Amino acid sequence: MAAKIWAFLNFKGGVGKTTDTVNLAAILAKHPDFRGNRVLVIDQDPQCNATLWFLTRERYHVATSRNKSAYHLYEAQMRGSQVPIQDVITPVYRDPESGGGIDLVGASFDMLEQEEDPSLGGEAAKAATVIQRAIEPVRNAYDYILIDCPPGYSIFTRNALRAAQHVIVPYTADYLALEGIKWIKQLRDRFARGHADPNSVARIGGVIVNRYRAGFRASDAALAELRVVLDELGAQTGEKIHLFRPFIREATAVTAANNEQRALVDCEPTAVRRDFIRVAHDLVQTFRRHV
Amino acid sequence: MSEGECGSVLERRAKVGPLAEGLRKLADTLEANQALYEPITFEREATLLAQRLREFLLREPALHRVSERMFLECRAAWLRAWQQAPAEMERRCENVLGRLPHHVAEESEVSWRLHLLVEVILLMPDAAGVLALTEAQGVESPVRGMGGDVHVEDRGATDALLLWGQMSQEEFLLSWGRLDPGLLRRCAGLVGVTLTRPTLAAKRKLHALAVRLFRNTRM
Questions:
Q1: Within 10 Å of residue B122's Cβ, how many Cβ atoms?
Q2: Segment A252-275 mean pLDDT
Q3: Could you state, in order of their start, the residue ranges of all structural domains in chain A?
Q4: CA of A175, closest CA in chain B: separation in Å?
Q5: Are B63 and B181 in contact (CB under 8 A)?
Q6: B74-100: buried (b, 16+ CB within 10 Å) or exposed (e) per residue?
Q7: Which residues contact A168 (CB under 8 A, 6 or more apart)?
Q8: Fewer CB within 10 Å of terminal CB in chain B, N or C?
Q9: Mean pLDDT of all residues in chain B?
Q10: To the nearest whole percent, how much of chain A has pLDDT over 90?
Q11: Distance separating alpha carbons of residues A124 and B55, to the nearest angstrom
């Protein structure tokens, strides 16, 4: 079966896009409830946070020196050619017993330069399909493809929107993150209008609430606002936008794990680890029937 | 303060006695049930509960309709319902109350449930109402957050807040007297405010949050 492809996107920075991407990838590949899944993570953020998280700084330099990053997919496009995605994949985890694992198409700081040329020296429409075309041949080799997006509407975000089936929106309970969700809808629709088949652009699949603080008045008010906005967006598109449960609580365990480049699923059991696992279940269930 | 108003306050205060007494009876019953509750836990819970009920009595005119007999009947129906289907009761209560339990002083399960009891009695001041609660149909499923927290999608309260958010403060304050206290409480809970007293400051705060909700959710 072809992989489910999710892009983690919010135009607001610091809402947990990378944290959600890497932890959910690790859970889908390693946790006993999901063991055996083959997961491909594609880092589309030139800040390379997901790449550094998976590879650490030393391995990042090795990978980029061997041309193993998304930069080379885009560079090939600029030259009018195409690089097979297998050439830029770095394996980061394998479970020989289950057959599951995590592969990475890392980002590179060099992508910052490519960001300045949205058409990559050619047609803008074609430049937005680099990732989509690259993953097509390997889509059956994975169960899930997770794309970590930058916090902006760059060529990399547009590639993610073309490649993914659904946008998963990481959100923290504040007004600016809510504005980020509204912008995703507007820009996604604008982008889709430019295509013969608007369905070829990812739809907003749902929202993951991060760093939730129970009993904090501002959180409650912001969540009430989020529900109103999701209802409105759902009414506009005719599709319900899912609010994934549970809300992922604010916890130092997340920061501690990030600092050690460890997935929460590899750490000792904590409440926030449980939140992530339950969200992974909700994600899988929600999109189970989507081909 | 007019003579009538003064009489009304005195009348309300007079009601505190029997109800508090009813609460003490509840305390005795629960304390006797050592298998379920530690006495020290219970004492703290009962004190908190009595204190909270007293506060409600002073501010909730609807409580005048709650006699001690009603209170005890409610309590009996309530405990029966919890015994028979605790998970279902928990869900129903959360739906009806439409708010988080974080306003509870002590977050232990005992405290939470007892406080819910008081609040549900305030909303449905008769045993039939409490029983009806257990049989309520068509209530949206609550959404569990973390720990014991619950997030309820309360469309009615959201719509009310969006409407108030389009009013000027003066219009909102003028309409206050006509607003359903239950709806006000649900709305306040939705935006994280505990309406302990309908003071001018509380009304203004609720209006400000309604304006914010309306403004922030405009597409």
A1: 19
A2: 90
A3: 4-286
A4: 7
A5: no
A6: bbebbbebbeeeeeebbbbbbbbbbbb
A7: A6, A7, A8, A9, A20, A205, A206, A207, A208, A244, A283
A8: N
A9: 57
A10: 56
A11: 66
- Which ipTM was obtained for this model? 0.71
- Contacts within 8 Å (CB) and 24+ apart, A185-192: A185/A233, A185/A236, A187/A11, A187/A153, A188/A161, A191/A128, A191/A158, A191/A161
Letter for the amino acid at B110?
A: V
Tokens of A144: 């899930």
Can you give the pLDDT at residue B192?
A: 79
How far lies B171's CA from each of A147, A210, B162, B210, in Å?
Answer: 49, 37, 14, 13
Of A209, A200, A202, A198, the closest CA to residue A166 belongs to: A202
Mean pLDDT, residues A261-270 taken together:
91
Q: Dihedrals φ, ψ of A51, to 5°?
A: -65, -50
Distance from CA of A114 to the nearest CA of B (A): 32
Q: Does domain A4-286 have CATH number 3.60.15.10?
A: no
Q: Which two tokens stand for residue A190?
A: 């604008």
Segments in chain A forming alpha helices (H): 17-30, 49-65, 70-78, 111-114, 124-127, 130-135, 155-163, 175-193, 217-237, 252-259, 271-286
Contacts of A99 (CB under 8 A, 6+ apart): A36, A38
CA–CA distance, B125 with B44 (Å, rounded to integer)? 25
With beta carbons under 8 A apart, name residues in chain B contacting A225: 212-213, 216-217
Which residues 216-275 of A have a C-beta within 8 angstroms of B?
216-221, 223-225, 227-229, 232-233, 236, 243, 245-247, 249, 271, 275
pLDDT score, position B69: 56
pLDDT per position as a tens digit, B131-188 = 444 343 222 222 222 222 333 457 778 888 988 888 889 888 988 888 887 788 888 8
Q: How confident is the model at residue A182 (pLDDT cuts 50, 70, 90)?
A: confident
Nearest to B153 among A220, A227, A236 (CB): A227
**Residue A146 CA, distance from chain mean position:** 5
Task: Give B 33-72 residues with CB within 8 A of chain A.
Answer: none
* Nearest by CB: B219 against A214, A232, A243: A232
